[in-house]
Design a protein that fits this description.
The chain contains 1 helix and 11 strands. By secondary structure, it is mainly beta. It has a 10-stranded antiparallel β-barrel.
Protein backbone atom coordinates (compact mmCIF):
# COMPACT_ATOMS: atom_id res chain seq x y z
CA UNK A 1 0.00 0.00 0.00
CA UNK A 2 2.80 2.41 0.89
CA UNK A 3 4.43 2.01 -2.52
CA UNK A 4 1.11 2.67 -4.25
CA UNK A 5 0.46 5.88 -2.27
CA UNK A 6 4.04 7.11 -2.75
CA UNK A 7 3.79 6.44 -6.50
CA UNK A 8 0.42 8.22 -6.52
CA UNK A 9 1.94 11.20 -4.68
CA UNK A 10 4.74 11.38 -7.23
CA UNK A 11 2.31 11.14 -10.14
CA UNK A 12 -0.05 13.81 -8.76
CA UNK A 13 2.78 16.10 -7.74
CA UNK A 14 4.56 15.84 -11.08
CA UNK A 15 1.34 16.49 -13.02
CA UNK A 16 0.20 19.45 -10.88
CA UNK A 17 3.46 21.35 -10.69
CA UNK A 18 3.96 22.03 -14.41
CA UNK A 19 0.30 22.97 -14.85
CA UNK A 20 0.30 25.31 -11.88
CA UNK A 21 3.58 27.03 -12.73
CA UNK A 22 2.87 27.44 -16.43
CA UNK A 23 -0.47 29.13 -15.86
CA UNK A 24 0.32 31.42 -12.92
CA UNK A 25 3.10 33.28 -11.21
CA UNK A 26 4.32 32.47 -7.72
CA UNK A 27 2.81 34.92 -5.20
CA UNK A 28 4.63 33.84 -2.05
CA UNK A 29 6.83 31.27 -0.36
CA UNK A 30 6.13 30.23 3.25
CA UNK A 31 8.23 28.03 5.50
CA UNK A 32 7.51 27.24 9.15
CA UNK A 33 9.08 25.09 11.85
CA UNK A 34 8.12 23.47 15.11
CA UNK A 35 10.08 21.10 17.34
CA UNK A 36 9.92 18.06 15.02
CA UNK A 37 8.25 19.42 11.88
CA UNK A 38 8.88 21.62 8.87
CA UNK A 39 6.35 22.80 6.28
CA UNK A 40 6.92 24.63 3.01
CA UNK A 41 4.20 26.22 0.86
CA UNK A 42 4.18 27.92 -2.52
CA UNK A 43 1.17 30.16 -3.14
CA UNK A 44 0.42 30.82 -6.79
CA UNK A 45 -2.23 32.71 -8.71
CA UNK A 46 -5.52 31.00 -9.36
CA UNK A 47 -7.28 30.16 -12.59
CA UNK A 48 -10.14 32.58 -11.83
CA UNK A 49 -10.46 36.07 -10.40
CA UNK A 50 -9.94 36.28 -6.60
CA UNK A 51 -8.61 32.71 -6.38
CA UNK A 52 -5.21 31.31 -5.51
CA UNK A 53 -3.62 27.87 -5.39
CA UNK A 54 -1.13 26.39 -2.98
CA UNK A 55 1.27 23.48 -3.06
CA UNK A 56 2.69 22.35 0.27
CA UNK A 57 4.83 19.65 1.84
CA UNK A 58 4.87 18.97 5.59
CA UNK A 59 7.40 16.61 7.20
CA UNK A 60 7.69 15.36 10.78
CA UNK A 61 10.67 13.29 11.96
CA UNK A 62 9.05 12.03 15.18
CA UNK A 63 5.34 11.18 14.83
CA UNK A 64 5.39 8.37 17.38
CA UNK A 65 8.24 6.15 18.55
CA UNK A 66 10.69 7.73 16.07
CA UNK A 67 8.48 7.13 13.03
CA UNK A 68 8.41 9.88 10.45
CA UNK A 69 5.61 11.10 8.22
CA UNK A 70 4.68 13.64 5.61
CA UNK A 71 1.76 15.32 3.89
CA UNK A 72 1.65 16.57 0.32
CA UNK A 73 -1.19 18.96 -0.53
CA UNK A 74 -2.67 20.96 -3.40
CA UNK A 75 -5.15 23.68 -2.42
CA UNK A 76 -7.57 25.97 -4.24
CA UNK A 77 -9.02 28.99 -2.41
CA UNK A 78 -11.21 32.00 -3.06
CA UNK A 79 -10.80 35.13 -1.01
CA UNK A 80 -10.38 38.83 -0.70
CA UNK A 81 -9.74 41.75 1.60
CA UNK A 82 -11.75 44.63 3.00
CA UNK A 83 -9.91 47.21 5.05
CA UNK A 84 -7.79 45.57 7.73
CA UNK A 85 -9.43 42.15 7.32
CA UNK A 86 -8.67 39.50 4.70
CA UNK A 87 -9.66 35.90 4.34
CA UNK A 88 -10.02 32.93 2.04
CA UNK A 89 -12.04 29.73 1.96
CA UNK A 90 -11.50 26.56 -0.03
CA UNK A 91 -9.92 23.19 0.39
CA UNK A 92 -6.88 21.07 -0.21
CA UNK A 93 -6.45 17.57 -1.59
CA UNK A 94 -3.90 15.77 0.58
CA UNK A 95 -1.78 12.66 0.55
CA UNK A 96 -0.85 11.60 4.07
CA UNK A 97 1.89 9.08 4.92
CA UNK A 98 2.62 8.16 8.53
CA UNK A 99 5.28 5.45 8.08
CA UNK A 100 3.19 2.24 8.33
CA UNK A 101 -0.20 3.74 7.40
CA UNK A 102 -1.20 6.14 4.65
CA UNK A 103 -4.13 7.59 2.78
CA UNK A 104 -5.56 10.95 1.87
CA UNK A 105 -8.17 13.57 2.55
CA UNK A 106 -10.03 16.50 1.08
CA UNK A 107 -9.64 19.06 3.88
CA UNK A 108 -11.96 22.08 3.81
CA UNK A 109 -10.98 25.37 5.46
CA UNK A 110 -9.12 28.60 4.97
CA UNK A 111 -7.55 31.55 6.70
CA UNK A 112 -8.51 34.82 8.35
CA UNK A 113 -6.12 37.74 8.91
CA UNK A 114 -6.78 40.94 10.86
CA UNK A 115 -4.31 43.84 10.80
CA UNK A 116 -4.86 45.45 14.20
CA UNK A 117 -1.74 47.58 13.62
CA UNK A 118 -0.28 48.58 10.23
CA UNK A 119 2.64 46.16 10.71
CA UNK A 120 1.13 43.52 13.04
CA UNK A 121 -1.64 41.04 12.27
CA UNK A 122 -3.48 38.15 13.87
CA UNK A 123 -3.77 35.15 11.58
CA UNK A 124 -5.95 32.06 12.04
CA UNK A 125 -5.72 29.10 9.65
CA UNK A 126 -7.64 25.84 9.81
CA UNK A 127 -8.69 22.78 7.81
CA UNK A 128 -10.88 19.78 8.59
CA UNK A 129 -11.48 16.53 6.75
CA UNK A 130 -14.03 14.29 8.52
CA UNK A 131 -14.19 10.58 7.72
CA UNK A 132 -16.53 11.13 4.77
CA UNK A 133 -13.79 13.21 3.07
CA UNK A 134 -10.93 10.86 3.99
CA UNK A 135 -9.72 7.71 2.26
CA UNK A 136 -7.21 4.90 2.60
CA UNK A 137 -6.18 4.40 6.22
CA UNK A 138 -7.04 8.02 7.13
CA UNK A 139 -10.20 8.43 9.19
CA UNK A 140 -9.87 12.20 9.86
CA UNK A 141 -7.47 15.10 9.34
CA UNK A 142 -7.56 18.44 11.14
CA UNK A 143 -5.28 21.40 11.60
CA UNK A 144 -5.53 24.74 13.36
CA UNK A 145 -2.96 27.51 13.69
CA UNK A 146 -3.08 30.88 15.42
CA UNK A 147 -0.20 33.28 14.77
CA UNK A 148 0.84 36.86 15.29
CA UNK A 149 2.63 38.13 12.18
CA UNK A 150 5.05 41.04 12.04
CA UNK A 151 5.81 42.95 8.82
CA UNK A 152 9.28 44.09 9.87
CA UNK A 153 10.98 43.45 6.51
CA UNK A 154 9.46 44.68 3.23
CA UNK A 155 7.38 41.95 1.54
CA UNK A 156 7.95 39.49 4.43
CA UNK A 157 5.73 38.37 7.30
CA UNK A 158 7.59 36.86 10.25
CA UNK A 159 5.17 34.98 12.50
CA UNK A 160 5.04 33.08 15.76
CA UNK A 161 2.17 31.15 17.31
CA UNK A 162 0.80 27.69 17.90
CA UNK A 163 -0.23 25.06 15.38
CA UNK A 164 -1.65 21.59 15.55
CA UNK A 165 -2.00 19.27 12.55
CA UNK A 166 -3.07 15.68 13.13
CA UNK A 167 -4.47 12.67 11.33
CA UNK A 168 -6.52 9.85 12.83
CA UNK A 169 -5.96 6.47 11.23
CA UNK A 170 -8.36 3.54 11.20
CA UNK A 171 -7.44 0.91 13.78
CA UNK A 172 -5.15 3.20 15.81
CA UNK A 173 -6.05 4.66 19.20
CA UNK A 174 -3.77 7.72 18.98
CA UNK A 175 -3.69 10.49 16.38
CA UNK A 176 -0.51 11.06 14.38
CA UNK A 177 0.54 14.62 15.22
CA UNK A 178 2.33 16.22 12.26
CA UNK A 179 2.69 19.51 14.15
CA UNK A 180 1.84 20.35 17.74
CA UNK A 181 2.91 23.36 19.79
CA UNK A 182 4.98 26.48 19.18
CA UNK A 183 5.37 27.30 15.50
CA UNK A 184 7.55 29.98 13.88
CA UNK A 185 8.00 30.91 10.26
CA UNK A 186 8.08 33.50 7.55
CA UNK A 187 6.13 34.23 4.40
CA UNK A 188 7.96 36.04 1.62
CA UNK A 189 5.82 37.88 -0.95
CA UNK A 190 7.37 37.49 -4.41
CA UNK A 191 5.17 40.00 -6.25
Amino acid sequence: MKLKISATALLIGSSLLPTAFCQAEINSFDINLSEHAVEGTLDIGGPWQNTHQSISVQYNDDLDRDEDGYTLAYGLYSGGAKGEISGSLGGKAMLIDADIVDGGALALGGEFRWYFHPEISLQVRGHLAPSVLSFGDVDRYRELGVHVAFDLIPNTHIYVGVKTAEAKFEGFKRDAEFQDGINIGFEMKLQ
